[in-house]
Structure formats: C-alpha cells, structure tokens
Write a structure and sequence with these properties.
The complex is a heterodimer of chains A (about 425) and B (about 80).
Chain A lengths: L6 E9 L6 H9 L6 E2 L4 H5 L5 E2 L12 H6 L2 H16 L10 E7 L4 H14 L8 H5 L3 H10 L4 E3 L7 H14 L5 E8 L4 H9 L29 E9 H6 L6 E10 L12 H14 L6 E5 L8 H13 L7 E3 L2 H4 L6 H15 L1 E2 L15 E2 L5 E2 L6 E8 L3 E8 L2
Parallel strand pairs in A: 4-5, 4-6, 9-10, 9-14, 10-12
Antiparallel strand pairs in A: 1-7, 1-8, 2-3, 6-7, 8-15, 11-13, 14-15
Chain B lengths: L4 H16 L20 H15 L5 H4 L5 H11 L2
Chain lengths: ~425, ~80
C-alpha cells in the first residue's frame, strides 16, 4: 500500500499592489500599508465611472520584463511569469524530471486587456491589423501556458477558473496532482490584470466596489461598520508545491505544509453568498478533515473578507460555525484591507501570507477597522501583527468566488 | 511619399527587434528570418501585420512564404508602395 504524499510549500513569488516581490509585499503587509491609490488617468471623467482608485501593482512589468515578453503576453500572464521566476528561484530551482513538474496558474477573468485592445483595433483599423498573438494572449489558460513554457513543465498545465476563488482552487488542484502521484513539483497560483475602465465600470455596476474616492487607502475596511465594498486590485501570487519526500531529498526549506483542501459550491445565487454559510462551512470542514487537523489546533484564519457589507459577516459566522468555541483563539486577518482584492490572484497571495504567518509565527494585521462591526464574532488582528505562539500550528485560508465557489486551504507549520 | 529601401530596412529592423529582442543592427538584408533570426511563423505574421501598417502596404499571405530574407521583405515592401 502506497501512502498519499504530503504536500509542502517550498517557494513563494508575487507581484502585488504592496510590492514587486514577496519580501517587499510581506514587509508592507506587516507594516499595515495600503496598496490602494487614486488612478492617474481620466477614466472616471471620460466614461462616468464612479470609482477613481484601485490597488495597482507597485512595480509595473515594463520595469522587469524585456520588450518582446511585454508584447507577447497579456499583463495577466506577465504578472504570473514575474511571480513564477521569483518563486522558482526562492525554491532553489528544484531539479525535477520535466514530466514530474506541473503548472496550475489561474486567472478569474482572463486576458481582458488583450481582448479589448484587439476589439478596438478591429473597429478602428479592420481585421488586417489584428495581431496574430491575440488569441494566445487572451485565452484564460495563457498565464499557466507561459509558466509551463518558462519552466518546461510537462506533467500538465491547468487553469481552473472560479472567479475570486481561482487562485486558491489552482493551489488545491496542484496539491491533488502531487497527492495523486501525477507530479512531484507543481508551480501554482493565480493572477489578475483587470484595472481597465470596462471591468471597473462593470464591477461598479454590480454595486460591489467601494466608492470612497476621497480616501483610497482607507477604502478596503473588512469588518468595519463603514465598509462599502471591495477595492479592485491586480497582481499575482505563485507558490512552489512539492511532495514532502522530494523536498526532503534535496534539503529544501519548507515554509509550511499544505495539509488539506476543501471545495464546495453554494448552488444558490450567481453573485450573493448563501446566507447561512452552508457552502463555506462544508469547504472548511472538508479541508480540515483531509488535513487531520483538529479545530483546537487552528490558530489563524486568513479570511476572504473583501470589505462587502454582506459577505464579511457570513464568512465570520461560517468560521464560528466550523470551529465553535475553538474560534475564540483564532487570530483573524483580512489582508485585503491592505492589498485590495486581486480577484483571481487573491487566493494565491493569501496562501503566501498564510504560509509566511505560520513560518514566522505572526499573523498580519487588518487595517482601517476603526469601528468593528458589532456582529463580528471573531478576534480580529488589527493594525499590528500578532504573535501566534510556539508548537505545531494550523491555519485556514478561505477564498470564495462569484458563482458560489468556495475553497478552503488548511496549512500547518512544517 | 514612398519610403526608401534604407528607411524600410530601418523600420523593419525596429519591428523585428521589438518582436524578438534582437538588436536592430543584427537585422541585415542577407539574414534569413527563420534560419538566422529564429522567427517562427506566428512571429513572422506579427511582423507582417506591423509592417503593413507602418509602410501602408499589403503583403498577401501567399507572398509571405517567398520572403526568406530581410532583403526580400525590403524589396517587396518597396515595390508594393507604388
């Protein structure tokens, strides 16, 4: 009888509104800085868009990628490749049979800049001017395809799409690839690049964005009574997952174990979370069950918490529902208060935060909570990081997406 | 106003350099797109699309396979201007 391989996190990479890599992003998060800023363009005035700010990437790709790569990849793939290069180097560039190396990098929305640029070109100049790279740049599997090309990953390249749960679902699927014996190492994560007037107008139309134009840094305020929607963000997070055996054989540094993956669907409404939290609860329970972690061992939750009026509290009640009294000793962090909402990149970035929180034994803060919602039934880490204590620790990272997709990941200390 | 062959070569070199990352001064008339500059068919069609716009000409798909070298493309574009 062969045993199911354990999965560990051995490399981290990111480009985010807080920084161009993981160390700068994590340092900014621990310092409680916001990545949201006023957009320096005329979109709001030109198109009548009610939102004038976003959490844009701190380091733009033209500062790190050569021209031919900028021209051949949609920004969503550019962010993914930048994060992948960092994660792969951070993992020590593992030597692995290409047929045992996988790539799973998702985007929630896909190459929308490419799609809309090509449409503009078609209307203004005709079909003869539409560039031949348009399709390979706009397809939603483009980021994972470029990552697989970058590393020569041949075990499989996948792109699971579940809106704002995409990044976490990608990491969950990558873990399954290792557990099922398809791969020894998988590069996994999520990316998004939709700070473009059309998606901002469309999210604003769905009344999900914060309208706090006079205070971008204070706009993302999960669990605060004055929260009024999420702050649209962009960027990518990528992790290197590896079987524990493969990592041990090469003496790799292990940030954390990815001990459990839980998935569910609400089957309830196309955008609203199911009010009782049933789907979220089932996802967290499934992840805990696979991990073998008891509720009392969970010390930290990185919440999905996007700063919407309804969603934040449903999740808090769901966490309470799963952990019961053991939720009393959970340090809850809502890092979107600083990063904004990276949509398809969010679950991956927050997995990085969760792994680092366990590795360094400190939970990142939640900022902008000046007046906590009285209905919040959990202990929120506010303004400054909190120490998580000694001994074996476990944490949950939640991600939920439009469409009723729920993904919970359980990580433990190495 | 037609472009001279010198101007066409310079403009084409800029397009090829953007697409491939090669320095513009490596894009010489005798260079083969595939054998010397390592340009695949997708990149070649990108270069054709951008060259058509830059020089205001049409390069029919049937013609692209005859453009083996940079010099072939310069000659074709030059002739197609009139």
């Amino acid at each position: 009888m062969s045993t199911v391989p354990e999965v560990v996190v051995t490399g981290l990479g990111a480009t985010t509104p807080l920084g161009g890599d993981v160390p700068s992003t994590w340092a900014a998060a621990l310092a409680g800085r916001s990545g949201a800023r006023t957009l320096e363009n005329d979109w709001a005035d030109t198109y009548g868009i009610p939102v004038r700010f976003a959490a844009t990437v701190r380091v733009t790709p033209d500062a790190v990628l050569p021209r031919p790569e900028l021209k051949r990849m949609d920004p969503s793939a550019q962010y993914a490749v930048i994060a992948t290069r960092e994660a792969w180097a951070d993992a020590g560039r593992p030597e692995v049979d290409p047929e045992r190396l996988g790539a799973v990098v998702s985007s929630g929305i896909g190459g929308i800049w490419t799609t809309l640029d090509a449409w503009d070109t078609l209307r203004e100049k005709g079909a003869r001017r539409v560039l031949p790279m348009t399709v390979p740049m706009l397809m939603p599997n483009s980021p994972t395809a470029f990552v697989s090309l970058e590393l020569g990953a041949r075990a499989g390249a996948h792109a699971l799409v579940s809106a704002c749960a995409s990044g976490a679902e990608a990491i969950g699927y990558a873990a399954d690839m290792i557990r099922s014996g398809r791969a020894d190492v998988v590069v996994a994560g999520g990316t998004e690049a939709v700070i473009h007037p059309m998606p901002i107008a469309a999210f604003a139309a769905s009344r999900t964005l914060s309208l706090r134009n006079d205070d971008p840094a204070g706009a993302s305020r999960p669990y605060d009574t004055a929260r009024d929607g999420f702050v649209i963000g962009e960027g990518a997070g990528v992790v290197v997952l590896e079987s524990a055996e493969h990592a041990a054989a090469r003496g790799a540094r292990v940030y954390a174990r990815l001990a459990g993956v839980g998935l569910s669907a609400d089957g309830y409404h196309i955008t609203s979370p199911e009010p009782s939290g049933d789907g979220q609860i089932r996802a967290m329970r499934a992840a805990l069950e696979q991990s073998g972690v008891a509720a009392r061992d969970v010390v930290h939750v990185n919440a999905h918490a996007t700063s919407t009026v309804v969603g934040d509290l449903i999740e808090a009640r769901s966490i309470r529902g799963v952990l019961g009294d053991d939720a009393d000793h959970v340090a809850l962090s809502a890092t979107k208060s600083m990063t904004g909402h990276l949509l398809g990149g969010a679950g991956a970035l927050e997995t990085i935060f969760t792994a680092l929180a366990l590795h360094e034994r400190q939970a990142p803060p939640t900022i902008n909570v000046t007046d906590p919602d009285p209905e919040l039934v959990l202990d929120l880490v506010r303004d400054t990081p909190r120490a998580l204590g000694e001994g074996p620790l476990a944490a949950i990272n939640n991600s939920f997406g439009f469409g009723g997709h729920n993904v919970a990941l359980v990580l433990t200390t190495a | 106003m037609a472009h001279s062959e010198q101007e066409i070569l310079a403009g084409l070199a800029e397009i090829v350099a953007e697409e491939t990352g090669l320095p513009t001064d490596s894009v010489l008339p005798e260079k083969s797109f595939t054998d010397d500059l390592d340009i695949d068919s997708l990149s070649m069609m990108t270069i054709v699309t951008l060259a058509e716009e830059k020089f205001g000409v049409t390069i029919p798909d049937d013609e692209v396979k005859n453009l083996t070298t940079v010099g072939d493309a310069v000659s074709f574009i030059s002739a197609a201007q009139s």
